[in-house]
Amino acid sequence: MAHELDNLIRQKTGFQSFEDLVSARGNYVPTIRIDADPEMRPIAEAYDAHMAATGDLRRAFVSYPKKEQERKDKIAIAMFRAQRAIERSRRIAAAELKTLENAHAAAISENRARDLQARIDTYGHDYDVNDSITVWSNQAEREGTVLALIGNEIIVEYEMPGTTSKWAGHPAAPTSALRIMRFENGKEVGAYKSVSYRNVPKKWLTAIKDAGMTDWIGMSQASTTRIPFPA
User: Fold this and answer.
1) How many structural domains does the chain have?
2) In what order do the strands lie in the sheet with 175-184?
3) Between vectors from CA 204 to CA 199 and to CA 205, what angle results, nearest 5°?
4) Does a structural domain hold residue 138?
5) CB–CB of 182/153 below 8 Å?
6) 159 in Cβ contact with 143 (< 8 Å)
7) Alpha-carbon distance 22 to 11, whole Å?
8) Domain-embedded: residue 231
9) What is the pLDDT of residues 139-172, one digit of tens each?
10) Is residue 136 domain-shared with residue 170, that is, in the same domain?
């Protein structure tokens, strides 16, 4: 078969063999007129098959007989239209999915907003146990943690950077404090209440315990040792 193909190539082209044809320099691509010479068809088919097998994107420029070309054109047009229809369907599906995603996100946002407002309407705030909170103390903002909730009140433990005279002779260490805060309509109202670690109201001790927040810092400014949560 290879010998016959080489002979055909020598007869019909300026090349001496199939190998010469596929390895021609300069990215050469043959033009093959099957419409004018049907015997050239094996050359075109062998060339395209070789290029496909070797991963080369080049293909022969082929002129087919009129009826054959018309059939190929119809197939190509049908494939093109089918591909365009598929792409259009994909774009429509993608747009519909995006619309659904946006609607879903909007619904989630609305639900969260309603839930938030419901919490504020019920409790005056939207804090939960273990939430971070910033409180104003000693002319600065202090980072704190919500230990428990009772109605529209929360008890917060916050950290302080300094020490007091109680710490004289002891290594410097950050201290902490407790504060009860009351809220209405999402805002703190009234005066806050500072609470001693050693004198936390029983209802708040119970709330803290029920919330699982008993591992407080407990480094009071009035003590040189950590005050553990009451047993």
Assistant:
1) 3
2) 132-137, 140-150, 153-160, 175-184, 187-195
3) 70
4) yes
5) yes
6) yes
7) 16
8) no
9) 889 999 999 999 889 999 998 876 655 555 566 6
10) yes
Query: Please, what is the angle between helix 41-53 and helix 2-12, to 10°?
Result: 120
d(CA 2, CA 17): 9
Amino acid, single-letter form, for residue 201: P
Which stretches in the chain have pLDDT values below 50?
none
Q: Which residue has the tokens 């021609």?
A: 24
Strand 61-63 versus strand 31-33 pairing type: parallel
SS (H, E, C) the chain: CHHHHHHHHHHHCCCCCHHHHHCCCCCCCCEEECCCCHHHHHHHHHHHHHHHHCCCCCCCEEECCHHHHHHHHHHHHHHHHHHHHHHHHHHHHHHHHHHHHHHHHHHHHHHHHHHHHHHHHHHCCCCCCCCEEEEEECCEEEEEEEEEEECCEEEEEEEECCCCHHHCCCCCCCEEEEEEEEEECCEEEEEEEEECHHHCCHHHHHHHHHCCCCCCCCCCCCCCCCCCCCC
Name the residue among 154, 133, 156, 130 with its Cα closest to residue 143: 133
Q: Give the range of the structural domain holding residue 156, as residue numbers without chain letter.
A: 132-210
- Domain annotation covers residue 219: no
**Closest Cα to residue 180, out of 162, 165, 158?**
158
What tokens does 59 get?
């293909």
Please name the amino acid found at residue 147.
L
